[in-house]
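Retro notes, item 3 of 5
We never archived the inputs for the histidyl-adenosine monophosphate complex last cycle. Fixing that now. Sequence and ligand:
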Amino acid sequence: MAKIQKIKGVADLFPEDSARYAFMEKTARDVFTSYGFGELRTPILEKTELFCRSIGEETDVVQKEMYTFPDRKNRSLTMRPEATAGVVRAYVENKIYQPGKVSKFFTFGPMFRYERPQAGRMRQFHQINAEVFGASEPQADAEVLLMLSGFLKGIGLEKLSFELNSLGCPECRPKYNQALKDFFNSLDKSELCDDCQRRVDTNPLRVLDCKVKRCKELTKDAPSIPDHLCTECRDHFDVVISLIDEAGLEYTLNPRLVRGLDYYQRTTFEVTSGDIGAQTAVAGGGRYDGLVESLGGPKKVPGIGFACGMERLAMLLEGEYEAATDFYVALVDERASKDALIFGEKLRRSGLKGEVGFTAKSMKAQLRHANKINAAKCFIFGADEYENGTVTIKDMTEGGEQETVSRTDYFK
Ligand code: HAM
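Structure as it came back at the time:
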């Protein structure tokens, strides 16, 4: 029968890969809980409307990349392309908000975007995501950035670049949008790509994010966001910067950083690496002060957060992440199979990790397997050991010693 292959853009994560993901999740959990965050698990399937309303109708994610389908009762569902929308929905639906209350959540899990797969770009990928609600102060922005940096350092990544920008607020953004529109209208618009020609009217900020080379060239002198911030946004951003300066976080200001999702206001950021090919962003995030309200929550509940792409971080992790194996119980004489199994159980009860051979094989084959699984010690059950109630212990490190001891003495 023909074998069935996985679909394009997804991956099977075998133990050596999964070990990296588990390491990232454990580090994130340790770092995030030290900042007062708790884990939230939201569904992968949500109503399509949730993403259209939050991420924005004019974004690539909503226009081209969502896995959307009708369920059996013809309701439109979407497999989450990101976590923030679902977290905000859960926050609003469960009425977590109370005046003055700050809530902090982190989530891990798979996300789905119908993009053209390449190194570091998958159709099913995994994010580590953190969100803070109820804090409009620039201290929250600074703390979120420092927590992200702490997590990345915690997994051993020191050489990443932080880029920061402020996207303004409903007060100053419309004026900036108008300045952008005026600029684009002064160009020969037919030279822009089809998407950008449309975006000039629907969402001019998106034009700055276009990856098409010609669009980038044409818009290089476009008005800059920082020049159009209102006093409140300027002051807010200045405090964020002074706080992270004080804390010693290195970053660059990137006035063209607009992000690919529409819900952002004020502080936005991306973390990039030069070592993983074309898809350089390993994390991105920012403030989304209008999102809770636009998803039916109360007015003026601010939010800020970020997501890290685990596939891209995994590409940067070096070394071994699988837990060490303490032992292998080598069955050389079939008659000892029961003794070997029970001995393995006792070793595990004493806190060790390892495997037991189920079928008798030659000593050579058994030792080869013990080496393959990186066992620190091999416990050998051959004919002598079976007959004498002993076990031979071989230290698997180079030039390791070997000794035969009584089995009952071993656990004394
Ligand atoms: P995003 O920039 O769309 O932001 O995604 C965050 C990270 O997810 C990216 O920097 C990248 O590392 C990873 N990523 C995105 N798409 C793919 C893909 N197709 N394959 C592999 N990795 C990918 C968000 O998703 C926002 N929800 C972040 C956020 C949280 N903002 C506020 N709170």
